[in-house]
Design a protein that fits this description.
Elements lengths: L1 H6 L38 H21 L9 E11 L5 E7 L2 H6 L3 H10 L7 E3 L2 E3 L1 E11 L2
Antiparallel strand pairs: 1-2, 1-5, 3-4
Helix pairs in contact: 2-4
């Protein structure tokens, strides 16, 4: 009987609450992997991949804009902000274009040229959050610098 009472403390009559906690907090302001063009995809480092994406998109848009000649009255040295959505399929969508009244007056077709240049961009690999492709929004600053 003494052996029976001594061994009872070895048994647990309570359920263990050692369950793995589920991570339910999601930071929607960042992604695990940035969108990338085919040339940037082999890069492993997250920051270098993001830099490659930014440089590539600016180069491609800049090359498209350089194909056009503009006639202006006064010199222009300003920034135009283009809000771009990259959906979960890797397609570019224009969310908005913010430019000064000076640029709108001197280069009225700039908005349509920016839209056409962004729509001509190739599909990209979309951003990834927790293993799922997600839609991301970027604000691209484009410097417009024209001399008379």
């Amino acid at each position: 009987m003494i052996v029976l009472f001594n061994s009872c403390d070895k048994f647990s009559f309570y359920k263990s609450n050692k369950k793995q906690p589920i991570d339910t907090i999601v930071d929607f302001s960042s992604v695990d992997m940035f969108p990338s063009f085919k040339d940037c995809n082999p890069i492993i480092d997250k920051d270098k991949k993001a830099d490659c994406f930014r440089e590539t998109i600016h180069q491609k848009i800049g090359a498209e804009l350089l194909k056009h000649q503009f006639t202006i009255k006064d010199a222009i040295d300003e920034l135009v902000y283009v809000d771009v959505l990259i959906n979960s399929n890797g397609e570019f969508l224009i969310a908005g274009i913010a430019s000064s009244q000076n640029i709108k007056d001197q280069i009225p077709k700039l908005d349509s040229l920016l839209i056409a240049s962004i729509q001509s961009l190739p599909k990209v690999y979309p951003a990834i959050k927790r293993g799922i492709p997600v839609t991301t929004k970027y604000r691209l600053p484009i410097k417009i610098q024209l001399q008379e």
